[in-house]
Amino acid sequence: MTRLKGRENSVTPTWILKVFIPIASIFLLTMIIMALLFSGMFTNVAQSLIVDDFLASLKMISTYYRQMRFNTVPIIDDLSDAQEIRDYLLQNLPKDKAMLGAYLRLENTVARNSYIHSIYLYNDEYGFFSTISGAEVPGELSDSTLLDFLATRPKNKNLYQRRSVFTDKTIPLSLPKKPNTPTNLYTICNLSYGDDGEVQSGIIMNLSETLARSLLADDEGTSKNFYMIDEGSYIISHPDPDQFGQKATSLPLLSQIASFDGPKGGQTLKDDEGKQFLACWYDIGEMNWRLIFILPMSHIREPLNHLRKNLVFVFIGLALIASLVLVWESKRINNQLTRENRFIDYLTGGLSAEALPLYEGQTFFIAVFLRQTKKPESELLQKNRFISFASQYLRFNGKNSFLLTMDQGQHVYLALHKPEKVISRFAKLLIDLGDLFDEQLSIFYSTERVPLEDLPRRYEQMRRRLLSSSLTEVGFISEIEQEDTKEVNLFLTETADMEKALSQRSAEAYAKSVDTLIINLKRQDDFELFSAMKQYLSYSIVALIGDVFQASEIMTAQEWKNSILSSRTYDDLKNGLLQVARILEEYREQYSKRQGMEQVLRIRELVAEHLRDKNLSAKFIADEIGLSLGYTRNLFKTIEGVALNEYIGMKRIDEAKDLLSTTKQSINAIRESLGFSNTAYFCTYFKKQTGKSPSEYRNEQRKAVQS
What we know:
The protein is of the alpha+beta class and about 700 residues long. It has helices at about 15-80, 85-90, 95-110, 145-150, 210-215, 250-260, 295-345, 385-390, 420-435, 455-470, 490-505, 505-525, 525-545, 545-550, 555-565, 570-610, 620-625, 630-640, 645-660, 665-675, 680-690, 695-705; strands at about 115-125, 125-130, 135, 160-165, 180-195, 200-210, 225-230, 235, 265-270, 275-285, 290-295, 365-375, 400-405, 410-415, 440-445, 450, 475-480. It is flat and about 115 Å long.
């Protein structure tokens, strides 16, 4: 191989100053900017992750509250049905025995459900019995606000929020609780009232809000940031227990969060002092409660700011290393791309052989590839992805062998030396490309080595033959030895026949012209002619029968045009063209149906116009509209679903019913005015249609008017 003299020393030390420093500086600056951008983006992503994490926690807490709410209803129902509790509530046993049974039942219930703070039983004879102090009298209840709560007549099975103070307990059934300390409760009850509106008996169950908050307790003090409000914006959980039952609107942050839309989300907001907070909320839809986390943004951003600084330093270090690698790799790739681009320009006639001095006098093995998708709506693999895939089967180093991308789906493989087992490599590439990526690969390769100066002519010959051959067969490997020359003809006669058939809206003549056109196209076997014919037909046919496409329900003109332009084979083109025959058939059927309906409408008008004419009959109608009697009968029966003579009779009976109801004409006069030949036939036919004789019908209508 002849090399260009002095090529090895063509890169001088000035290259370092001219190329390396500018590229390295630009790359370093770019990497620093990217570091800042990505660190900022990462900060936003981290904040989003924090929101997602707290929303997940709120969802978990909501599950617990749902369990408290919806498990409590079955529990209180079970207690209401339990014999021990009924013995106390209904006074079935003496008070001592009733209290003992209730005590054991309530003890088991509280032990199994840790979120239950206390349970109270009441009946107007025995009084109150609680899991805190046992038997109690109203004046000394351990729950200081229970009587006030019952005085509001709470609805059964509703969950209420309230606050109370409990005295020292004597029966250790409930959770530990300091005496005489305000306690926040969720209360549910099942009560029965007397005629005077006073409570007769019932069960009151208190759930601990303090215990629910304890679920959030951790080393980071998460519970300090947790809040909860109800549908009326009242606070039902707060880090400060004294805020329980207060209006959320009294606090600046909670009042903002109470107005947020959506069942869940996260949003930054400011308090009256301008400090920023991150608020996350999650709604319990069934209970109309909103669970909230409020975190100062300073706690979130401080670690993220440290992370941002670390990212900037890491990116700067990576930028310095990458800039050195980039310069070295860019030089290597640039040399390779320069060779490839020069070969592409040379094959397409853009350069002379002198532009490839390194390969002067060399001969090449050449193969031309054509990639096509198996499905018209699919897209080909991207160029780089295909080249990467093909490199597993064919070796090309950009110096002694190349895989050049010429056009969409077209590639040229050039090698100074024919690879070993090249045909089997091609076959393996063809099979795997079809199996893995649903692409079909067609290949033409030269049987002899081609000199450098003959490459453009040889490439053009192989390209044309490959495109033309793919019209009848795809997915093949074939050798090519010599160039075939042929004359290309345009089909003026066939296209004229097609235009005539379309103008006449004749599906049969059009289908015949399509067959003739495709046969002659196959004889030419020329891809350029095939492509030109696709373009011509797709626009000319739409221009000729645009109104037919507008009336069609099969496909639109644009859909049909796209199917023609995407045709890859003669069969695809033929099938697409024959779609027009189906559309023409549909158009003819629609036209025939419209014409038939217009004729039926005319028949109905003639019946109404000549209803009192004695000569009115199916034959009379057929003569009037100028159609045969048989066609007129069949047309009317097909569209209206009733025989024409029967329709005339029905209309006459409708008219007779109207005359019988609204006039005093005799039955015989009505019969005669409607063209019936005799009174007996008229009465028989009338009764057959209405189920009554004319006189019976008239009497019935008169009675209806009088009533």
